[in-house]
Design goal:
Number of strands: 0
Oligomer: single chain
Largest sheet: none
Shape: elongated
Number of helices: 2
Structural class: mainly alpha
Number of domains: 1
Helix content: over 70%
Radius of gyration: 13 Å
Strand content: under 5%
Length: 49
């Protein structure tokens, strides 16, 4: 149970960082492929940082 809590906490932290650093909540793309592609690029950029 503790492992699940730690995993969820790390995922929540990742999403918080993406929202704050990359303003992911403000993205208004309606094309599903473009939306997913840019999300992958943002995660890649985050990992490089």
């Amino acid at each position: 149970m503790e492992a699940i809590r730690r995993h969820r906490a790390s995922v929540n932290n990742l999403h918080w960082v993406l929202d704050v650093m990359f303003r992911e909540d403000e993205v208004r793309s309606r094309d599903r492929v473009a939306t997913r592609s840019f999300a992958v690029l943002r995660e890649l950029a985050f990992n490089l940082l």
